[in-house]
Amino acid sequence: MPAPQTYRYCFGPWNLSEGQDPYGPPVRPPQTFGWKLQQLKDAGFDAMMFHDDDVVPDIDSKSDIQILKEAREMGKRLKDAGIAAEIVAPRLWFSPMTIDGAYTSNDKKCRQYAIDRSKRCIDIGKAVGCNLLVLWLAREGSYIRESKNARQCVDHLVAALDAMLAHDKKVRIAIEPKPNEPMDHAYIPTIGHALAIAQLTDDPKRVGCLIESAHAILAGLDPADEIDFACAFNKLWSIHLNDQNGLKFDQDKPFGSANLRVAFNQVRALERNGYGRKGEYVAFDVHPFRTTKVEHWMRHLTNSKRTFEALVDKARSFNEAQAQALIADRNYQDLDQMVLEHLMGVK
Ligand code: XUL
Ligand code: MN
Q1: What is the chain's Cα-based Rg?
Q2: Which of 1, 80, 213, 264 sits at 20 to 30 Å (Cα–Cα) from 142?
Q3: pLDDT of 269-322, one tens digit each?
């Protein structure tokens, strides 16, 4: 038996959000990147995840030389702070060039913009010391099915992935599937889709995935099963733990907040697959409630980490022998109760 793994943690600057939603403005004042970095460090997290424009703001208005200069400055800042960059992700859903999709836009010029921006994002990653590119394919899907040729969109996605893989022979791409929001239907809604499209690229070994708990739940799937599936292919390269109360908008609740048992099973899946042993991080893609006061601004993150660590203890103290005996007897009735009592701390 290998020694139990230790976990390393991260979050992104966007996780210290200001509370705006489609119905109301921000309710907390904007903070500087320096403040966020200090919060991350003080709370004992190990790494930061980035969108390209978290590293270089107003990226589209800057030259390649300026972008690299600013990215290197960020790399130095992180190094001085003793904090790693876990991933970079191109923010492809803001620009006027991606209104009708990025890699799958019907307009060739827009598809090229998305590819060029992704290449810049890869260069930014290199400058801040990470070669893991995350692609949340926000606008790759349809509102109106007849507006796009989904078969052709698969080819566009593969062409874009191939262009990224060719741009940098060291880059690895983790696709973060989500079934809906902002689109009605996304082209890559599940881990199965992400791993299948990886096989169509020029270098499938360098295309894997990132699972977000809430996204799996929105697809009607169990995130723990998604973890086991991805790990069976050695393709789980990052994870966004959070929670989601049913089929609604993407809630990004604290980990375990809606369904502790589903969270427990995700931790068990990470444990049995040795997640983290190859340097993978546990990221919390959680947002504060809109009601959160400024002085409680980090709580959704520190609470998610506390819950995660408590569930690691629960996973390790789960009585496997007793569970196996119940399984052998096909007594799932008592297995069910055993899990509940373990989580409730009933002795
Ligand atoms: C969107 C989402 C993103 C990605 C990074 O639902 O989860 O924050 O994780 O682009
Ligand atoms: Mn995410």
Answers
A1: 20
A2: 213
A3: 999 999 999 999 999 999 999 999 999 999 999 999 999 999 999 999 999 999
30 is written with which tokens?
């904007």
Distance CA 195, CA 132 (A): 16
Closest CA to 216 of 179, 175, 248, 182: 179
Encode pLDDT of 10-47 as tens digits. 999 999 999 999 999 999 999 999 999 999 999 999 99
The secondary element (H helix, E strand) that includes residue 51 is strand 47-51
Q: How far apart are CA 208 and CA 332, in angstroms?
A: 34
Nearest residue by C-alpha to atom 6 in ligand 1: 250
Structure tokens, 41: 């460090």
Distance 336 CA to ligand 1 centre (A): 33
Burial category of 12 from C-beta neighbours within 10 Å (exposed 0-12, middle 13-18, buried 19 and up): buried
CB environment 61-80: b (16+ within 10 A), e (fewer): eeeeeebbebbeebbeebee
Query: From the CB of residue 132, how many other CB atoms can be counted at a distance below 10 Å?
Result: 22
Testing ligand 1's pocket by substitution, the residue of 240, 244, 250, 252 carrying the most ligand atoms inside 8 A of its CB is 240
Model pTM above 0.85: yes
